[in-house]
Amino acid sequence: MLKGILFLGIFLIYFQSAYSLEQKLDSKMTLGWEISGDEILITLKCKIELGYCSVGFRSTMSDCDMVAALNFGDSVMIMDFWSVDHSEPKPDEAEGGTNDLVKVSGGLDSNNEIDVTFKRKLVTGDIYDNDIYPDEIGHITWAYRDNKLGWSEHSYYSSAGFTFATKESEMYFSENLDEKFNHGNSLTFSWLGLAVIGILAARYFRHNCCWVYVHTILLLVASLITIINSSRLYSEAKFKKYELGEAIYFHSRLGQFMMSLVIGECIFGFVSLYFVLFTKNLHGSKLMGKAHKAVGYTLLISGLINCFLGWGLYIPYFGRVGTVGGIIIIIIVFVAFQIYQVCKRNRFTKASISLPDMTHIEAMEKIRNGSKYMFADDLVVNVRFFGISHPGGAYMINDCIGEDTGKYMVGCSSYGAEFNPFKHSEKAFSFLKNLAIARIPYPSGYIITPDTSERHLMEFVLLQKEKLNEHTFLFYFKSDFFKMPERCTESLWLGKHFLFIMKKRFKRIRRYYSSLFVDLDNWKNELGLPVSGNTIREDGLVRFIVKVYQGGLMTSKLNDLKIGETLTIKGPLGPGLLLEEFKGNYLAFAGGTGLVPFLDLVHMAYKLSDKLTGFHLTLFVFFRNIKDGFAFDILEKIADSNEDWFRLIIVVEEYGNKGKVPEMIKNELMKEIKLAWICGPSGFNRNYANILAEGGVKRDRIIVM
């Protein structure tokens, strides 16, 4: 009897302040505790008459040690559970652990509600128990169900930041379930809504100047929401891994990773925009653009994954199903846009008949008055606001105003010598339809047809191929339906080109070649020069001079074309020389086969020479060496015939005169230049365009072909 009284006294002294610290969790639950040594005494007070209340030692039910007090109506049972996720927790023993709870006192109070005290070790050593760290901010979660017997899904659930304090001054409690739901809703709205719309705008609507505002604003808002909301919950992310649990830890760290990506994405986006708008650094623009795109898609995917993980922590079934449903909708939207882009917008179609007609001359007049127009085959396109969309930089667009975009788009020419030609995607070609403001009518009489029906694509067959030098050939094509006049009768026809179209391995190959009106052998006969003897005497032929390049996609196919085989062409296209009359001083720079359009110019002037007054043409012809050239004999014959309207300067290695060209140009620029034409390879075109501009020739008077 004496031993029992002594033991009771020691117990009362040991736990004399057992309920001295107490925290009201909500209107139904109160949690009390006392820490002594390596043990903790916990009291659960729950206004539950039939059902249960439980407390867990993490912020969610994932990898959570839980204690449940089950009220059977006449008794209370304390059980030690381990919860893997939001499904029904199992007793520790069922998982292979041990029951580490010892009931101390209590059960039901006078109102038949739960009021029970139990104890456990702070560190039990059981892998199915969470360790309790006194005076460290951590988390608890609690739940209960009333008016239903047994261990079933709770009717209420919440969580909070919490400290098992050793004294009142160290107590901490902050319920955060609503904040977590707001966090989830905000991040879901950001990454399943705003970010997706922003990316769609950048991917499919670059032709519209508003895309950049939609993309920037929506992604910036999504980024700010991510940073602000994640920062609010940073107090959770800073906890030790053992307190968070694997699922929450991964979700939290992925969120921190996203915050880093958000900052990087904003930096890459604005730096990329700076490069595009204010520099001529193509490599910087491309690098920043690719980095921005890569980080952006990584961010979107990370956001979708984290939404799935986050909702899985708090609303496991409906949250995950809803997130997966949203992701499926996003995928369907992206697939639908892509199918529409590939099957509808990327189709090679003729210019819309709803567009008004505008000639090249009319467009050039508007350009001289400040309009930002370019030409795209049979379209006039307004690129005033497209510079911001062009990944190569706005300067490329600004420097090419008034030019035909075809040579750049198909990848047979580049902006300058320091850049390689770049074949644009079919999506890029589709943008031209949206940028178009007018349709350019085909020049009347250039192609003769039996009726007045509008032509889009024309089929010609190869009639003959004549070798001009080792790599250059004169091709003769014939059609029973489409015919070309024997001579150029309109100066505005000069310099126009045709689009050649071939398909190879499901890819559409496009290239541009200037047509040739004049029959070179007939012209040689007139001048008393020897001829090849291979001249074809047939009306309506279309002639092209083409240099065959080893590995060239189009020229190799052309060179392999057999007599009688078909070629699809479209044209005539391009502004050509824009020569309205033979009056004034003109400069022409021909590089390689860029000489072709000037042969017709010289021939037409030659035919009109008796009537020419006030017209002068200086033609610079560039070839690597003499054997690579053609038609030199014709041009030299005319230049030597004391025609005062024509000056010829041939620049080849044998003559050693390339270094003198800048000085010769300077001398020519002492006269007022009405128009200057440049037709040659990429670096050649931009180089001489810049030399002329620096020499005082207005940009709208320089025609780069």
Describe this structure in words.
The radius of gyration is 41 Å and the shape is rod-shaped. The protein starts with a helix and ends with a strand. About 2% of the residues have low confidence. By secondary structure, it is an alpha+beta fold. Helix 3 runs antiparallel to helix 8 and helix 4 packs antiparallel against helix 7. A hairpin with a 2-residue loop joins strand 13 and strand 14. The protein has 4 domains: 155 residues, Immunoglobulin-like, CATH 2.60.40.1210; 168 residues, Four Helix Bundle (Hemerythrin (Met), subunit A); 75 residues, Flavocytochrome B2, Chain A, domain 1, CATH 3.10.120.10; 247 residues, Elongation Factor Tu (Ef-tu), domain 3 (Beta Barrel).
Structure in a nutshell:
By secondary structure, this protein is an alpha+beta fold.
Helix content percent band: 25-40%
- Our measurement of the CA-to-CA distance between the termini, rounded to an integer number of angstroms, reads 115 Å
Count of helix runs: 19
Low-confidence parts: 5-19
Tell me the number of structural domains: 4
By oligomeric state, this entry counts as: single chain
Q: What characteristic shape results from the CA principal axes?
A: rod-shaped
Q: Do you know the CATH topology of the largest domain?
A: Elongation Factor Tu (Ef-tu), domain 3
Indicate the structural class.
alpha+beta
Count the E strands.
26
Strand arrangement within the widest β-sheet reads: 7-6-5-4-10-11-12
How much is the average pLDDT? 87
* CATH-level-2 architecture of the largest domain: Beta Barrel
Q: CATH homologous superfamily name of the largest domain?
A: Translation factors
Radius of gyration from CA coordinates: 41 Å
Signal peptide: 1-20
InterPro entries: CBR-like (IPR001834), Cbr1-like_FAD-bd_dom (IPR008333), Cyt_B5-like_heme/steroid_sf (IPR036400), Cyt_b561/ferric_Rdtase_TM (IPR006593), DOH_DOMON (IPR045266), DOMON_domain (IPR005018), FAD-bd_FR_type (IPR017927), FNR_nucleotide-bd (IPR039261)
Domain FAD-binding FR-type: 455-579
Domain DOMON: 27-145
